[in-house]
Amino acid sequence: MPCNRFIIILCFLLFTHPFAEGQSKNYTLKGHIYIRGGDKYPYQLIFNINGDVVIGYSVTKWPNAVEPRIKIRGQIDFKQHTLLYRETEIITALPLAGNMCLVDTKLKYVLRGGRYFIFGTFTGKDKNNKTCGEGAIEFEEPYVPGSLFYPDTVTNKKTAASQPLVTLPAAKKQKDTLAVSEVPDEIIGGYHKITEGVPQHLTWNTGYCNIQVWDGGVIDGDVITILLNGKEVLTNYTLTKTKKQLFLTLTEKINTITIVAGDEGTAPPNTAQMILYDGPIQHEILAFNKEGKTASIVITKNTNDRK
């Protein structure tokens, strides 16, 4: 986050605050916070609900094992499937004074395959309510007795049957040579094929894009570089079966993701299997090219999206 939050957090001394003591029941959501620029950190909400009012605190787990806790207050709407909250006050000891960048967000939750996915973008606000950062937040919650959203049977009936699952499919074992033996814009195994001169155009609903990229075929040493609007976000990366995750903030009305083919490996051409997440919606892409060539994904945001 482009603010003072990271500098201050390095100076935190973690202590246990009696904020949650005496509570009859706490709900916990576990997920991640994505900071504009690509950083990702484990992030939790621990809270109680009184009517529709949410009161509790957030916990961010930083690499240095410090876990700053910040009070939150918000509102949950079970009919609209939204969770609105704002971080209001830090409750971890601060040896140094500073200007914290606090989360202000409205999240949407949907049921997918027996699990709830809670997601949305956020802005960071300082003590003067000025914007000091942005990014996205995502949680996962099982649909089981005792969980926060378990009584929400209306969503279970309507959403589960009508929406695709937000699950990461296993990498499909495809030979790289298939990429050039078929029509470029043909859909192979559910994946839209793109190559130089054959871009993929997508309409987008959110202000960010999560990308999973891997080699779903022959693991032969394919190397790629990915650019967002001409700026490198992944450089000379060797693809494996393990999915590499990127978080991109879409700052323009029209955003172009470019995949540059590097080394083609031992089984040409260069192939990269990708899933792009627009909130709960996923787009499956198979990019292939000869070394030095590029493939493009053009994302046009809806005019009513939340940045």
Task: Describe the structure in your own words.
This protein has helices at residues 5-9, 153-162, 178-181; strands at 27-35, 39-50, 53-60, 69-77, 82-90, 102-112, 115-125, 131-142, 187-188, 191-194, 200-206, 208-214, 223-228, 231-238, 244-249, 254-261, 270-278, 281-289, 294-306. The chain has 2 domains: 5-162, Avidin-like (Lipocalin), CATH 2.40.128; 178-306. It is mainly beta. The longest helix is centred in the middle third of the chain and has 10 residues, at 153-162. β9 and β10 (191-194) form a beta hairpin. Helix content is 6%, strand content 52%. The strands form 3 sheets. Strands 1-2-3-4-5-6-7-8 form an 8-stranded antiparallel barrel. A 6-stranded mixed β-sheet has the order 9-10-18-17-12-15, with no helix packed on it.
Summarize the entry for a quick read.
The chain is built from 3 helices and 19 strands.
Descriptors:
single chain; 307 residues; mainly beta; Lipocalin; 2 domains; six-stranded mixed beta sheet; 3 helices; 19 strands; elongated
Q: Outline the low-pLDDT stretches.
A: 1-24, 152-185
CATH topology of the largest domain: Lipocalin
Order of helices and strands: HEEEEEEEEHHEEEEEEEEEEE
Q: Number of DSSP helices?
A: 3
Radius of gyration: 21 Å
Shape: elongated
Strand order of the largest sheet: 1-2-3-4-5-6-7-8
State the secondary-structure class.
mainly beta
The number of E-state strands comes to 19
The average pLDDT score comes to: 76
The profile of the biggest β sheet is: 8 strands, antiparallel, barrel
The end-to-end distance, rounded to whole angstroms, is 15 Å
CATH superfamily of the largest domain: Avidin-like
Return the domain count.
2
User: What is the level-2 CATH architecture name of the largest domain?
Assistant: Beta Barrel
State the share of residues found in helices, binned by percent: under 10%
Broad CATH class of the largest domain: Mainly Beta
